[in-house]
């Protein structure tokens, strides 16, 4: 069974690999995409000042937690960075792996199908993406689904996007459904936007993961957890104290970090008793979401694939800002730059609990090579005669896999149903199999051999 499943996964990858890079393969699953730049328009009317809002809040209630600061700066419904801006792409503040090369999304698509097959090919497949950016990853995954329709057979496939930014949802809708999407009549509707791809695949948008319907689902979160609010804690002579954001009394119009003089509820409950580091960042909101994913996987089946930059419980101060692809002071001009912190995968593993199986983290370079990116590149380069395109392919491959670039900075982590890794039952009365049956391999986290 192990050999059979490994062979089936390799067949999926091989069938995707025979298709060249280019827009023609995407026609069946998505509408024509125009290039949409991601910097806010200079013609926009001045927005209410985030700094003024934060200053007023601090004057009223005292210093605020870093988590509250991040939440306000990124997702405030009026002045939040994610709410007002399209920040992705070369003219935005950062570029993600799916923007660099569609090969990334293709291999994620193969991973999704291999896990669907490993679960016994359920009749329903919900692809759920958290924080889908411009929709590039989902678009590439759906293209793979289109190429492998015969594998999916009669399965009911649907796409569910969890997105808090109305501006980004419009961009995603344009990329995935063209002009066919429509907004809900009421603001409090769980599905606030819906549409169909060119091939008729239903797409729905939600503000919360809880609103996504129950059912067998593969969850994908690429560069999602790093943007969730974190609490920061500092070890002191009096014990753990929370790092807060306050008004700087010596510099007008500026904020500063301060250490709470006494324990807070968060410093008393979120730091592990055996913690050895002197500075810790804890993403409590990320822990809650992982628990939601784990519960849904246990109850309805499925898997989750998390890809982000992070560590396995070793780093300390990783909180930083990005503006125009450059590092930016996190307390300077709040609302004008992206805020992020490395994901602590050891914390996510602990919060997932023992009812699901956790794999990883493995580096992005390892995951992509295990998924067959080298074979894919060989096919593309062999079929490409244009020097500039070849140069772009090689450059994108290097960016994704080079250890000094994204190859070791980004990691992949997965939640699986326990049954997915269970050893197949040995049939009574058979003597041909002398060794115990092995668990089915998980693509990306297991090295597959390509003939």
Percent of residues in helices comes to 25-40%
Record field, number of beta strands: 18
Overall spatial form: globular
Poorly predicted tracts of residues:
1-5, 22-47, 89-94
N-to-C span: 19 Å
Largest sheet: 10 strands, mixed
Rg computed from alpha carbons, rounded to a whole number of angstroms: 23 Å
Can you give the mean pLDDT? 87
Number of helices: 16
State the secondary-structure class.
Answer: alpha/beta
Proportion of residues in extended strands: 15-25%
General description of the model:
There is one protein chain. With 451 residues, this protein is of the alpha/beta class. Helix content is 35%, strand content 22%. The protein contains 16 helices and 18 strands. The protein has helices at 2-17, 50-61, 66-75, 81-84, 97-100, 102-118, 136-147, 149-152, 166-177, 265-269, 284-300, 345-352, 364-370, 373-382, 387-401, 403-407, and strands spanning 64-65, 124-130, 156-162, 182-183, 191-196, 202-206, 217-222, 231-236, 239-247, 255-259, 279-282, 302-311, 320-323, 326-328, 338-340, 343-344, 356-363, 410-417. β8 (231-236) and β9 form a beta hairpin. α1 (2-17) runs antiparallel to α6 (102-118).
Please summarize what this structure is.
It is built from 16 helices and 18 strands. It has 451 residues and is α/β, with parallel strands linked by helices.
What is the strand and helix layout of this fold?
Elements: H1 2-17, H2 50-61, E1 64-65, H3 66-75, H4 81-84, H5 97-100, H6 102-118, E2 124-130, H7 136-147, H8 149-152, E3 156-162, H9 166-177, E4 182-183, E5 191-196, E6 202-206, E7 217-222, E8 231-236, E9 239-247, E10 255-259, H10 265-269, E11 279-282, H11 284-300, E12 302-311, E13 320-323, E14 326-328, E15 338-340, E16 343-344, H12 345-352, E17 356-363, H13 364-370, H14 373-382, H15 387-401, H16 403-407, E18 410-417
Parallel strand pairs: 2-3, 2-7, 3-6, 7-12, 12-16
Antiparallel strand pairs: 1-9, 4-5, 5-6, 8-9, 8-11, 9-10, 12-18, 13-14, 13-15, 17-18
Helix pairs in contact: 1-6, 6-7, 11-12, 14-15
């Amino acid at each position: 069974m192990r050999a059979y499943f490994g062979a089936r996964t390799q067949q999926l990858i091989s069938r995707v690999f025979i298709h060249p890079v280019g827009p023609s393969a995407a026609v069946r699953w998505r509408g024509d995409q125009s290039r949409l730049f991601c910097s806010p328009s200079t013609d926009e009317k001045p927005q209410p000042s985030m700094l003024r809002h934060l200053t007023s809040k601090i004057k009223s209630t005292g210093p605020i937690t870093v988590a509250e600061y991040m939440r306000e700066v990124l997702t405030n419904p009026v002045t939040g960075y994610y709410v007002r801006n399209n920040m992705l792409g070369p003219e935005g503040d950062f570029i993600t792996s799916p923007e660099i090369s569609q090969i990334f999304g293709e291999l994620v698509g193969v991973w999704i199908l291999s896990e669907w097959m490993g679960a016994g090919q359920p009749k329903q497949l919900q692809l759920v993406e958290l924080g889908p950016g411009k929709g590039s990853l989902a678009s590439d995954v759906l293209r793979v689904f289109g190429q492998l329709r015969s594998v999916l057979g009669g399965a009911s496939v649907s796409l569910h996007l969890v997105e808090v930014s109305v501006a980004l949802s419009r961009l995603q809708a344009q990329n995935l459904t063209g002009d066919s999407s429509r907004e809900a009549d009421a603001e409090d509707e769980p599905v606030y936007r819906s549409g169909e791809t060119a091939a008729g695949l239903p797409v729905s948008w939600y503000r919360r993961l809880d609103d996504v319907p129950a059912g067998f689902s593969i969850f994908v979160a690429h560069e999602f957890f790093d943007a969730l609010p974190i609490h920061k804690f500092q070890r002191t002579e009096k014990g753990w104290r929370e790092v807060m954001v306050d008004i700087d009394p010596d510099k007008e119009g500026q904020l500063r970090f301060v250490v709470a003089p006494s324990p807070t509820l968060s410093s008393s409950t979120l730091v592990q008793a055996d913690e050895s580091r002197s500075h810790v960042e804890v993403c409590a909101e990320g822990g809650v979401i992982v628990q939601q994913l784990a519960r849904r996987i246990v109850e309805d089946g499925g898997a989750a694939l998390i890809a982000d930059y992070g560590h396995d419980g070793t780093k300390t101060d990783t909180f930083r800002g990005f503006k125009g692809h450059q590092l930016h002071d996190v307390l300077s001009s709040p609302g004008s730059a992206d805020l992020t912190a490395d994901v602590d995968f050891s914390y996510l593993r602990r919060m997932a609990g023992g009812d699901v199986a956790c794999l990883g983290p493995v580096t992005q370079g390892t995951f992509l090579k295990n998924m067959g990116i080298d074979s894919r590149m060989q096919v593309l380069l062999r079929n490409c005669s244009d020097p500039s395109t070849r140069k772009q392919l090689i450059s994108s491959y290097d960016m994704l896999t080079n250890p000094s670039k994204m190859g070791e900075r980004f990691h992949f982590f997965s939640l699986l149903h326990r049954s997915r890794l269970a050893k197949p039952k040995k049939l009574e009365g058979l003597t041909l199999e002398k060794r115990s049956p092995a668990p089915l391999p998980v693509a990306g986290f297991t090295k597959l051999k390509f003939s």
